[in-house]
Amino acid sequence: MFRLILLVPLACWLLAARAPRTRWRVGAMLAVLTVAELGVAFGGWRVRHYQHSLEVLMIAAGVVVLLAGLIWDWADTDGGGVRQWIARVLGGLYGVLALFVLLFFVVNDLGTFATAPAYGGKAVAIPDAALLLPLPAGLTVVDETTSCRDSNAGGFCDRTFAIAAADGTPDDRVAGRLLAHLGDSGGWTFGSAGEERLADLSGTRWRACRTAGWWLDRQSEHVSVFAFTPGIPHNRFAPAQAAVTVEFGFSHQVCE
């Protein structure tokens, strides 16, 4: 419902405008901007890399068009009646308030308020399953979890898959197939493998991190592939039949 505020400029203009030559020209421009703004606002996952950036630019453009149109229409008429004056005042107030709100979002999304080095303050989304799925033939997901948490550098959200072989592929080859799959389907480039041993956890991990998003939407996207050491219990981390876990994470923490 909050997104319906994007209709305010168009509504104010239609109520305030009196001059025929400006009414439909400015109205058409505001209508196009409104439709575009709503499309981006409700685009969700598909537009995550440029959503806030486009919203800020289009709302700012809408404010400029509205205020310029109101001035133009006022100059072409004798002022109008009470309805027109109320609409003009509301349109002017909306424009001034919108610019202050946009300035706050720009400063916040640039990470100015972060207490640690970060790309921005925009809320991160839970990684989509499409980053991994569909899996190569013969591999299957036996468990899937998601979580979000806060940190000094902003929010952090992740999605973790536990993967097992359903076609008899040896456990020590599952990780290799997944690494190749992630490289081909997502363009991920992994660093060297590292051994990890913690209490009831033992295995090999590969990591990759990259920066994605435009201007106000910049964030870190990372993926971790962990292959369990055969014969070591790991029910605490994944079902016993799982050979590998794949974790995707989104945050504003700078890639190291």
Task: Please characterize this protein's 3D structure.
The chain has 256 residues and is an alpha+beta fold. It is 39% helix and 23% strand. The protein contains five helices and six strands. A six-stranded antiparallel beta sheet has the order 1-2-6-5-4-3. A hairpin with a 6-residue loop joins strand 4 and strand 5 (219-228). Helix 1 packs antiparallel against helix 4 (82-109) and helix 3 (51-76) packs antiparallel against helix 4. The longest helix is centred in the middle third of the chain and has 28 residues, at 82-109. The protein starts with 7 loop residues before the first helix and ends in a 5-residue tail after the last strand. The model has no long low-confidence stretch (mean pLDDT 81).
Structural class: alpha+beta
The H-and-E topology, N to C, reads as HHHHEEHEEEE
Indicate the mean pLDDT. 81
Query: Radius of gyration from the CA trace?
Result: 26 Å
User: Could you give the count of β-strands?
Assistant: 6
Q: Profile the largest sheet.
A: 6 strands, antiparallel
Helix content percent band: 25-40%
Low-confidence stretches: none
What would you call the shape?
Answer: elongated
Q: Give the strand line-up of the largest sheet.
A: 1-2-6-5-4-3
Structure, briefly:
The protein has 256 residues and is α+β, with helices and mostly antiparallel strands. Helix content is 39%, strand content 23%. It is built from five helices and six strands, in the order H-H-H-H-E-E-H-E-E-E-E.
